[in-house]
Amino acid sequence: MNTRTTMHRPMRILLCMALGTFAVGTESFMIAPPLPQLASDLSQSLVAVGQLVTVFTLTYAFSSPILTTLTGDVSRRNLLVVSMAGFAIANVIAACTPNYWSLLFARVLLALVAGLYVPNATALAGALVPPEQRGRALAIVTGGTSVAVALGVPLSALVGHGFGWRMTFAIVGALALLATAGLFLSLARDVGANLPVARLSDRLAVFRQMPLLLALLVTLLWASGAYTVYTYLSPFLAEATGISGSHVGLVLFVWGVSAATGVTAGGTLTDRLGFKRVIIASLSLLALAFVSMSASAYGLPPVTARAPVLTAIVVWGLAAWSFFPAQQTRLISLAGVELASVALSLNASFMFGGFALGAAIGSVTIAHGSPDALGFVGAAGVATS
């Protein structure tokens, strides 16, 4: 039966899927702001709780393409409903966790189900509507992540400061449960029945194309540089500028708005100037922003450093996320129509792999140096791309 004729209110379905990607996006980024609070509550070092970021991102990076391939014959409806329900349950486990190791387990579980949900939701979004509406459908579903970066993460930081980090997991779990109910009630049983799924051999074929592989490595280095700083932004702000507590949430809100603006501007500029110019400009500005953050931290007293650091954070958000649509356009151009979906899926894996690498590099920087050095280290990672 044709997918489009069996869909009941496609917009409602897309919004339910977008709520799911919003929950996943918030979960992916929200753990960094409360790291000092987590370290205190769980009686662990800052470096140890930083591994909660590394474990999540690394698990997502490796499991997502494999699980997506292995579940290719599973009903799309069942897959989305079960994965989002699993995401809700994992958040409840995280909220109720009694110690560090059980929270680490919850983060692994969260990464597994998130890595299964997101690519399948994205793929299904394009199948729900006619070709001429496909771009809008994809924008709605993937827009959940952008909204999470702009609003979900700073709001979770404020909630965490006021009510404790466990409450942030509980709220994301409630959102995931709401998305699960929406998907269960809205999706037809035969939805996506004819949706093709890339085989593992198709994914491995990408690695035999050197230009495409080199482009994916740029994503890895961009993500590692950015997450070196982002993971430990709270201790950096506390030491470099004296900003802490609920004010970190306000800083993240500014960063999130600039990031969302960067995604939109990056897409527009890519259409006008081409992806190469946008990528070079974005990475250059990002490296400069990171350098200025650490230079201000080392060279200025905390009160004086606030203005240049906050300005650099705004530039960081704009530059880092304007890179993303330009890089996706580059990958589509290199991969061609047949391998475009595979290349974009692998790009997400390389991005989360970079997040994991960046979190690990940040932890080493904190352990053997100072939070003030994070910008210099992050800039070095970006510069190598």
Strand/helix succession: HHHHHHHHHHHHHHH
End-to-end CA span: 47 Å
Proportion in β-strands = under 5%
**What's the gyration radius in Å?**
20 Å
Structural class, from secondary structure content? mainly alpha
Biggest sheet features: none
Q: Look at the structure and give the mean pLDDT.
A: 85
Number of helices: 15
Low-confidence stretches: 1-8
What's the total count of β strands? Answer: 0
Instruction: Describe the global form.
Output: globular
Helix content: over 70%
Structure description:
The chain has 385 residues and is mainly alpha-helical. It has 15 helices and no strands. Helix 2 packs across helix 7 (134-163), helix 2 (10-30) packs antiparallel against helix 8 and helix 5 (76-96) runs antiparallel to helix 8 (165-186). The longest helix is centred in the last third of the chain and has 67 residues, at 302-368. The N and C termini lie far apart (47 Å).
List its salient traits.
385 residues, mainly alpha, 15 helices, globular
Task: Set out the fold topology.
Layout: H1 3-6, H2 10-30, H3 35-41, H4 46-70, H5 76-96, H6 100-127, H7 134-163, H8 165-186, H9 200-206, H10 210-230, H11 233-241, H12 246-273, H13 275-299, H14 302-368, H15 374-383
Helix pairs in contact: 2-6, 2-7, 2-8, 3-4, 4-6, 4-14, 5-6, 5-8, 6-7, 7-8, 7-12, 10-14, 10-15, 12-13, 12-14, 13-14, 13-15
